Amino acid sequence: MDKQHYNDGLLRFLQQSPTPFHAVSTMRAALESAGFELLNEQDVWQLKPGRAYVVTRNDSSIVAFTTADADPAETGINMAGAHTDSPCLKLKPNAVMNSPSALQFAVEIYGGALLAPWFDRDLSLAGRVEFRRQNGDVDSALLNWCRPIATVPSLAIHLDREANQNRSINAQKDMPPVFAMPLVPAADNTPAQFDFGAFIRETLEAQHGIVEVDKVLAHELYFYDTQAPAVIGLHNDFIASARLDNLLSCYVCLDAILAAHKSDNKQFSLMVCNDHEEVGSASACGAQGPFLRSVLARLCAQFSQGDAAESVERMTRRSLFLSIDNAHGLHPNFPEKHDANHGPLLNKGPVIKINANQRYATNSRSSARFKAICDQADVPVQEFVVRSDMGCGSTIGPITASGLGVETIDIGVPTYGMHSIRELAGSDDGWLLGRALRLYFGAGDGGGL
């Protein structure tokens, strides 16, 4: 498992995944190419031992799993989860704002974004659109403009002398991106309007060859930074990219489940990557929704004997869930923001996240089980506890643990600048976590991405 090859794959995945929809599309394509069979939630499932399957919901959440010639109620399932969404600027339904000086896009803030780094970046747009064809059929497609089409310009220091000392950011007023100059009024001085529907139709034709669009019905479109992911640092110490939180974890899960499928050591292993973690997970495809439990119930129904509900409960008691989400690395400029004994360092291995108030789902038993895996994989482990006088974020871990009753641990790689438009991780840490996860899923050093 070569580190450079692993990180090259991570950079490609990050570049191909500007939105949760694109991340799931990229993962699904990789899984199907490797022999995972696509399931439809509306169909009757016919699962077989020694096979691999993938199912999606809302095009933004995904579950993939491998099966064994055994009863999961007797063996349990090794599970790992991450999330596909990241804080960003999301386009509002009525997307265009006209002003005398520029055309702007109306946006709302998705998740807990660090807003200051969004200024003066080259932004593009991507996501999903729904449209009606001329024959009356309603369809959808993924779009990605790829090139820079907008920016959020800063106010010059000359017009805001206090900008570096005392400036707040108003999400409604300060964040709408500029994308074009005002349109010239018609000859009768009627104000010219930017045709957003035509803008979408032209892109559908250019990217998908779809020409028979009668009407654009709805969209879920997100702005993203066009600067490519990169390995940086004097000795290639770091990975810099948008959406490291939490696409890095999705990549680690994807690589491990692919390696598990290619391995001769067949066991029940499962990865889930949920949407909407950054806004609370309360959706049909979020971790608080029924997606994972539904898949587990249907899997048990195929492989277990006896009462289906009891089989799910027995399987859950024998399982472990790794909730994988980035951790806060010890920031060199702000060491006082960390507990002195629990400040994880970049490039020193994955982090176990612990919180007395159950903001993380880790307990001593799940921690011990993960440490044993890391010891076997020769992977160093660190621990993170937030300062006792500070609040603590959370993950899909407590939500999944409380929803399923499965033993859970919260882990992740340490990063700087979490929720910024561009985050920073150590170039060793994803690879190290990947080694542990491959072992957990029963895979060897080969296979994967």
From TrEMBL:
EC number of this enzyme: 3.4.11.-
InterPro entries: Peptidase_M18 (IPR001948), Peptidase_M18_dom2 (IPR023358)
Pfam families (UniProt xref): Peptidase_M18
Cofactor: Zn(2+)
Gene Ontology biological process terms in this record: proteolysis
UniProt keywords, alphabetically: Aminopeptidase, Hydrolase, Metal-binding, Metalloprotease, Protease, Zinc
Single GO term (MF): metallopeptidase activity
GO cellular component, one term: cytoplasm
Membership in a protein family: Belongs to the peptidase M18 family.
The name this protein goes by in its record: M18 family aminopeptidase
